[in-house]
Amino acid sequence: MTALVLDGGIALLTIGIAAWTIRAGDDFAAVVGFIAYGLVLTLAWTRLGAYDVALTEAAIGGGATGVILMRAGARVKPAPASRPSRLARIIVGALSAAVAAGLAAVVLLPPQPAPSLALDVREHLASTGLGNPIGGVLMAYRAADTFLETVVVLLALFGVWSLGRDAHWGGRPGPAPRPGIGGPLPLFARILVPAGIVIGIYIVWVGADAPGGKFQGATILAAMAILAGMAGLVAAPATSGRRLRWLLAAGPIVFVGIGLAGIPLAGAFLAYPPGFEKPLILVIEVALTVSLAAMLALIVAGPPERSP
Amino acid sequence: MSLAPFDAATLFGLMGAILVGLGLYGVVLLESFLRRLLAFNLLGGGVFILFGVVARRGAGAGFSGDPVPQALVITGIVVAFCATALAITLIERLGEEDGDDASGGGS
């Protein structure tokens, strides 16, 4: 009963924040509302027992998306407010409510028994050498999804870079660093970044057997790079740098290399030869973590704004 | 077909349905691109939660939820982040171009 009251409170809070984000007076307030939405949604994920998803939502859905939105909220000029007519609001409101009601009906009248692949996942999990079933799905059963996902991240980075001005192609993202940033930020970064790097690596490592994984860990590592950049401890790299580009490509190259080697050795693309599952998955995870952390940090940093 | 028991999964399922409705309303009606993008992400959050409810109801074999939909949602959150980042950069650039036009060209 107490649990249901807690869950009800989280659900009402989430809906309230979502409605407030839609109705907020200006863009920046809406961005702040959306970041809060990501955090309460994380609570809902933990209440559903999906800790891996909760970590991802907190790190990427709330955190990384929030940072980019703050950047945009500060830069994008507020659009002139023009209220849609009352008729439009009533029609769209009714249709949206109908969609919500349809989904609610599906929730209230679920198929019996509930469809589930949990037994199949359990049956073969031991052969992957992993203890975390979600890690098993991401790295073995649905490895093709995970491979394409990393390519999507890389393509998004190319897209962001392509939106810079022609004169700045290959240059450094963000405004030029202000010399001698004072105050607490550099001190804060010096203390937090080493601890954050350890936590990020730990989240990747523990993801084999417990909630965690490369995406969550890479996001923490990317956040540390961004913090060090904001504090002026490291300079943003030139996006034309050869070493940087190899760093970005390393993860997908290792992944596709091992995947192609699976065709002669194990009989299928992205299949692992028996007995080598765990070491190969570890090699892919380490390479992907490094590349993903660089990709995510550079996506957040935005398009190049200065000449190289 | 029988009514689902009123547990945490059902409660959050209804929340997800309402979030999808709210997001849809915002995507169609809001004027500013940034606000539409936010509404689209609200909608996405609701869809992901519905996946989470499917996962929770498929709990079995000693897992607290069906791992397959959970893994799909993790992939989905990362892809949604990438699409959002690209869209935000597009909106920023669009704002710059409009600013240039107003001041009669520019860099």
From TrEMBL, chain A:
Domain MrpA C-terminal/MbhD: 13-74
Keyword line: Cell membrane, Membrane, Transmembrane, Transmembrane helix
Subcellular localization(s) per the UniProt record: Cell membrane
Membrane topology: Multi-pass membrane protein
Record's keyword annotation contains Transmembrane: yes
Segments forming domain Na+/H+ antiporter MnhB subunit-related protein: 187-301
TM helices/strands, residue ranges: 28-46, 87-109, 146-164, 185-205, 217-235, 247-273, 279-301
InterPro entries documented for this protein: CPA3_antiporter_subunitB, MnhB, MrpA_C/MbhD
Family per record: Belongs to the CPA3 antiporters (TC 2.A.63) subunit B family.
Protein name in UniProt: Multisubunit Na+/H+ antiporter MnhB subunit
Protein source organism: Kaistia geumhonensis
Lineage: Bacteria, Pseudomonadati, Pseudomonadota, Alphaproteobacteria, Hyphomicrobiales
TrEMBL record, chain B:
Family designation: Belongs to the CPA3 antiporters (TC 2.A.63) subunit C family.
Residue ranges crossing the lipid bilayer per the database entry: 12-30, 37-59, 71-91
Superkingdom per UniProt: Bacteria
Cellular localization per UniProt: Cell membrane
Record organism: Kaistia geumhonensis
Pfam family, one: Oxidored_q2
InterPro entries noted in UniProt: CPA3_antiporter_subunitC, NUOK/Mnh_C1-like
Protein name: Multicomponent Na+:H+ antiporter subunit C
UniProt topology in membrane: Multi-pass membrane protein
UniProt KW keywords: Cell membrane, Membrane, Transmembrane, Transmembrane helix
